[in-house]
Amino acid sequence: MEPAARAAPTVMSGEAQTLRVVDRVSHHRPAGSPPDRARVIRVLAVLAMALLPWLVAPGEVQPDTKIDLTLSPWTYLARSVDAWNGHAGLGELQNQAYGYLFPMGPVFGIGHSLGLPAWACQRVWWTILLLVAFLGVQRLVRELRLAGPSVALLAAAAYALCPRVLTLLAENSSEAWPMAVAPWLVLAARPLLRAELDRRGVLRSVAASGLLAAALGGVNAAASGLMLVIPFLFLLTHPQGRRRIGWWVLGVLAGALWWLLPLLVLGGYGYPFLDFIETASMTTAVTSTPNVLRGNSDWIAYILDSAGHPTWQSGWTSAQSLVSIVATSAVAGIGLVGVARLRSHLGRFALLSVLVGTVFMTIGHHGVVGSPVAGQARALLDGSLAPLRNVHKADALIRLPVVLGLAVVLDRLRRSREVAARLTAAALVVLVAAAMTPIWQGRLADSGGYRAVPVSWSVMAHRIDAAAERAGGSTLLFPNARTATYDWGTTSDDPMSALAASPLVFRAAAPLGEPGATRMLDTADQLASSGEVQPGLAAGLARMGIARIVVRHSIASTVGAQPWSLVEATLRRSPGFAYAGSAGTGTDRLTLWTVSESRTVAAYARDDDLRVVGGPESIFDLATVGALAPDQGAQIVGGTTAVGATVPNVVTDSLRWRSYNNGVSAADGYSPTLTGADRTPDHIGARDLPPGGDPANQPVRELIGMSSWSASSSGADPTARTYAGPGAGIAAAFDDDPDTAWRTGDHESDASLSFTPTSRTPLREVDVDLASGPGLDRVGSVRVSVGAVHGATVRVARGQTALRLRLPRAATGAVRIDLKVAGAATDPVIGLTRVSVPGQQLGSIISLPGRVDPTRTSVLLRRDPREHSTAATQGEDPATLRRRVTFSRSGQVVPSVWVRSAASGAGALQLACGQAGVLRIGTSSVPLRLTASAAQVAQGGLLRAQPCATSAAVAVGPQTVSVAPGDGVRAELVYLRRDSSAGVDAGASIPARAYGALRSGDGTVRIGGGGARVVALTEGYNRGWHASLAGRSLPAVRVDGWRQGFVVPAGAAATLHVTFGPTRWQRAGLIVGALAVLALAVLAVGSRRRGRRAVADGPDVTDPSYDGAAPGPTRVTVMAAVLSVGVGVLMSGLAGVVVGALCLLVPRRLVGWGIGGSMAVAGVLLASLGVVDQRSVGAILGQLAGTVTACLLARCLAGVRTGSGGGPAPAPAAPPGPPTPAPPRSSAPSPRPASS
């Protein structure tokens, strides 16, 4: 070992030599001394960090990232190189699956090949992740000479086990991996700051940065990209770094090519699923300044499931347990004090990184004292910046500087001889440990961990694979479930997708597939969960290429899926399904059903296409009424019947103007049909899946006797806290149905309903019926107002429901009815069953768009499919089914009506004309009769009522089509067919068969001869699909509203070559990226220095004495004012202006106390007065306290010197001497906050 005396001349030499020798000096011991204690401690710390993952629920697999990696990693990685995911039965673009190719996927693959159990492979990956983060920060602290070895280890532990990592480790570790690489990115970029670095050194640093950018992985490109901001700021804040930043950018771009180029393919050809998942209002709801600074900014960590249990146990504990709130706030505050003490380049970098990260994450937070531009920021995050919507991914921009500052403070305390300082250091260590609350409480694991996937799933996977080998087709999982949460455990994705090799269809949380196909799946789930006969369900699924259905019995009740028993009842009773066996028992049971006449590819005669106005989901109803034959194609032409457009064969009411919440099941996800003036579905988070989106071309709710209406809230809003179904909307108060009612949706004690009558006749009285029954609270008082005239408050007696509200004088204008709950009800729900005005007709009706020619176009109307046997009030339609259709001419139609019996045990039905209901079309009436057997009634069959007239006359203009209920039956489907001679007959069947890897995007289709034909795949329509015949490209067409099809000209039998072009681009991108990584590796190896050649002397960037010129006092004052007030405004609006101005008055010597103290106070306020509710005292005061911290940091940034120096005085090397010398008193100047 070299003697310490030889170290001095080397310290000012080249960067790499400097750091190696400094490290040797710090660990020097004379011959014969005991083992180096620091090195032993380091080894023990590394072992402890490596051991920790193995203590987390040993033997249990956690729902981390992708279940495919624990069950079939190599198969999944092999599929990931294809752009098109043919394993998803209806097809979709791979969503960054290629990102698992490195480094995460191979870790699981190698472990799987070595025979390691799934849980052990998972723990190996976690160990790598934690060690990379731990060793990266430990080395960064030592190379920056911010602290000694032991303090560096503590800072590294604080980073590797920070709240964000603990939140994600057992849930989504791939998102935490880029954060682990972040300190290494800074280390790789650091040599570029040295002025004397030669070209070889520059190339080596650039190559190392590029390789690390490659190692970030592409599982989550947004998280990886945000990590590159950290080294970018590190270079940007140094004069020499700015000169070389272009080289660095080239290096990281080269390294990231392998995940950037496929991302461009996804962006160019993927479906717009970002509009239907979480919104910016959700992701920024918890990003208050104190939450962001303490590291608990992930919105999922604050969510409870329907049973009141944390969605992410570890994240919830870290974010909301009292000890954790106080500890994480205190640790962050102390770390930020250290950040403020950093000087020159390190100070600028650390402060700028913290402020950039904080502003980025908080600017969209709309609290009581939140950002004044939160609305605009959220609009951007929901629009062009949607990939960055989950702002919490930027946490490392704050966390890395915070732990560097923590090291500075701890090291200064450690080196002090004062007892108080030593005790403070010990207390700080305890605080750092307390901030890791999930570990000490044993809640780091997810509560849904499982030992193994039940054997029944593997058995069923083998069965469906064997069936697919024989008969082809996909397998559909019922009932739909947004998350894979089962009674036996929680998985990230459905286990069957990893166990089965054949194509699988299931409704995932993110609608990655063709939107029309997603609409079909949601409707199929509604129909299947009715428990009743569904004649068109099998036919619709067969057209989707679904040949089998697996019914899952073990979906957890917290998921909100429909009951499996109802699904099996529907399959058992409906035509086209056959039971094919089961696997497992109890909640592990899976049942298998076959679907008849399923085809993965079909050919239809082009001239026989059925042109349909509506949504793709109308396919099920068209099949039910016989309007669409199995050998007939359907062209869903959207919602237009305008003049000049292709005349449709059928107009439906399926594509209704509604708001949509994709986060819940389809039965609960849609609002009732809205008025055309209601623009709620225009907003992200409420948009309907395409082809919906234009109320001018969709069925809308038309008001009768009113020009507008509104309510304080609605239980029919799918985002309401007390969602009660679409039948609880405002329309229910005006439908004259005593069984329906408008209900409040947000637990208001005071609620209101308003409407504006179209009549100008002054009114003085309003009649209301108060809603009562299960789940409703009693109304204590009611008041009516009309325009500026207010009636007296009417007290409601117990048991009273019908009220006549009077005004002191007659008035015109908007009518407002105010309700107040009786007593002090907890989470009240109140409502109105009926609202009427004497002498006026008030109501609403669903109106179809455009004009219909009854001689050329049929009309198909259906009752809300959400209404089924177990929840008869769930749909939005009252007992009388009513629609408005505008006819362009008069004529005759042939009516058909399908009804259901309200009582399954009523026995056989024999209803004479008029007893089965009455169909009315304008002024025309057609009585209905019905004959049904007891078996049909018992099975809940869809019964076809016979009209007592062969046809019905329709008049020109808007006509109300209605079917009044009969004796125990009510209408479900109404089909007004153009006269009997104008029916649509399907042509002869055209044979079609697929060959090759068509589902992966490269295959052939052999079709029979004939006239112009349409070949339809069971893959989602996408402009990336191409088909050619004899070298000639074929025009693409969308079939059934979602399927990929191609038009084949008339001729003999032919073979089509079908490809998905983007797969070539994705594979090319992966190859180019791999070559770029290889080139970077060669460059890194080739540019390594041989030997230890000295370089020209130059200033050491870690030397704090090289501070450069300080800015003038006037400039510092102005900059401090601008930054402090500016940051305050962005975070807290006008209150932030006051806070920023007050921060300028804090004496310089107290700035550090202000930074640490304000964060500590914020933690106490959040813990004691509320952390989640933005209106709570804790959230309001905590936001102000956090803003104080940020404003003081902004002020410090203004005063940092402009030179290229480093941080505070370096930790001195241990001098030769006795094995355990007393620590020397620091001779370095006391670091002060670099502020004005």
Summarize the structure in words.
The protein contains 35 helices and 41 strands. It is an alpha+beta fold. The protein has five domains: 456 residues, no CATH class; 133 residues, no CATH class; 186 residues, Jelly Rolls, CATH 2.60.120; 174 residues, Galactose-binding domain-like (Jelly Rolls); 72 residues, Sandwich (Immunoglobulin-like). The strands form seven sheets. It has a 15-stranded mixed beta sheet that branches. Strands 13, 15, 17, 18, 19 and 21 form a six-stranded antiparallel beta sheet that branches. It has a five-stranded mixed beta sheet with strand order 4-1-5-7-6, with helices on both faces. Helix 10 runs antiparallel to helix 11, helix 13 packs across helix 19 and helix 27 crosses helix 29.
